[in-house]
C-alpha cells in the first residue's frame, strides 16, 4: 500500500478527529522514522512526546518481548510484580507517596480531579483553578480543566467547578480561590499552550497559597516528566513539591500508560478500595516497558544528555533567531523548546516534513521541538540545517 491508499482507508472508516499530514509512518528507530514509501525522516517530535527514548529503544523492545512471552495482563484485584516495582521506582525518583496507574494523560488528570473532589467532599469543596492556555486532556472533566475555549466548544454543559486564570499571575489566582476551592492545577511548562514556562517565584507562591488554604497542588507532568527537561520531573527545577503529579507519554516511551502520584503527606483514606479503578491500569506489559525506560535513563545518563543537548539545540535556535527576524522568541527548558514566530507556522512544518524533518506547531505560531532525550549533536545539526533551509526559503 502507499500513503494515498492508507489515507483512503481513513477517509472511509476512521472518524476524522485529527487534522492529518500526508505521511504514513511504518518504521522507527531512535530519532529516525520511515514512511510507507521508504523515505527517511528525522523526528524532532517523536510520538507527540510519547517516544521519549526515541522510537523502539532496544531496551524497551527487549522488556516488552520478554514480558509478552510470560504474561500480558493481571487484573487489579491481584498483585502484579512489575506494577509494584514501577511504583517504587517512580517514588524513588520523585517524592514519598503512592501511585495509581491508568492508560493515558487524560485519565491521569481525570484521576487527579476525582482525587481532589473526594479530598474536598467532607468540607464541601470541589472547585479547581487551572491555567488559561493549559491542556489536560479530552475527557469531559479534563476538557473542563483545560483553559482553551476551542477545546471546550460544543461540549457544554461541562462539569462545573473549573476556573481559569493566566499562568504566572498570582493575584488573579488568589482572586479565583474561594472557600469552595480544593485544588490548583498547572503544567510547569505548558506544552500545547505554546511552551510557556512557569516562573520560579510564582510556583513557590502557589505552593505557599496551597499550604495556607489546604488546597491540593497538582502538577500535570504528562509532557514535562520522565527526563524531558533534564531532571526526572520538571518540578525538580523549582524546589517545590506537588501534592499530586500526573504522568503519561514518555513514561512508557511508546506504550499507553498513565499515572497519578499522590504525596504521602495527603491523608490515605481519599481513594479507598472501590472508589476509583482502571481495568488495564499498570498491566505487566506497559509497566515492564516503563521500568525499562527508567533503567535506560539511569544507565545511559540521559538526564545529563538532555541538559547538554538542550543547551546545544537552544544555542542553535538562537543562532537562527539572530539570522531570521520571523523568529520572535526561543523558550523552554531542556529538550522541550518552543520557537515563537511572527506568523503562522503550519507552512514551515509542512516544508520541514517535505525536507525530511518532523516538528510540530502549536497555538498557530509556536514551533514545538521535543526531540528524543537520546538525541545527539550530529542529529541536532542535521535538523537545524533543515530548519535553516526552510527559514531561508520563506
Ligand atoms: C500536559 C498534558 N496533560 C494531559 C494530556 C493528555 O494526555 P493523553 O493524550 O495521553 O490523554 C496531554 C496531551 O498532550 C498533555 O500534554
Descriptors for this entry?
394 residues, alpha/beta, Aspartate Aminotransferase, domain 1, Aspartate Aminotransferase, domain 2, 2 domains, seven-stranded mixed sheet, four-stranded mixed sheet, 12 helices, globular, binds pyridoxal-5'-phosphate
In short:
With 394 residues, the chain is of the alpha/beta class. The protein has 12 helices and 17 strands. It has a 7-stranded mixed sheet with strand order 4-12-11-10-7-5-6, with helices on both faces. It has a 4-stranded mixed sheet with strand order 1-2-3-15.
Please provide a written account of the structure.
With 394 residues, the chain is α/β, with parallel strands linked by helices. The chain folds into two domains: 3-57 and 300-392, Aspartate Aminotransferase, domain 1, CATH 3.90.1150.10; 59-299, Type I PLP-dependent aspartate aminotransferase-like (Major domain) (Aspartate Aminotransferase, domain 2, 3-Layer(aba) Sandwich). 37% of the residues lie in helices and 19% in strands. The chain has twelve helices and 17 strands. The protein has helices at residues 3-13, 58-70, 81-93, 105-120, 140-145, 149-152, 170-176, 200-213, 284-299, 302-323, 346-354, 377-392, and strands at residues 25-29, 32-35, 40-43, 97-102, 127-131, 162-165, 181-186, 189-190, 196-197, 216-220, 244-247, 258-263, 327-333, 336-341, 357-358, 360-362, 366-369. The strands form four sheets. A seven-stranded mixed beta sheet has the order 4-12-11-10-7-5-6, with helices on both faces. The protein has a four-stranded mixed beta sheet with strand order 1-2-3-15. Strand 2 and strand 3 (40-43) form a beta hairpin. The longest helix has 22 residues, at 302-323. The model has no long low-confidence stretch (mean pLDDT 98). The site of pyridoxal-5'-phosphate has 14 residues, from helix 4.
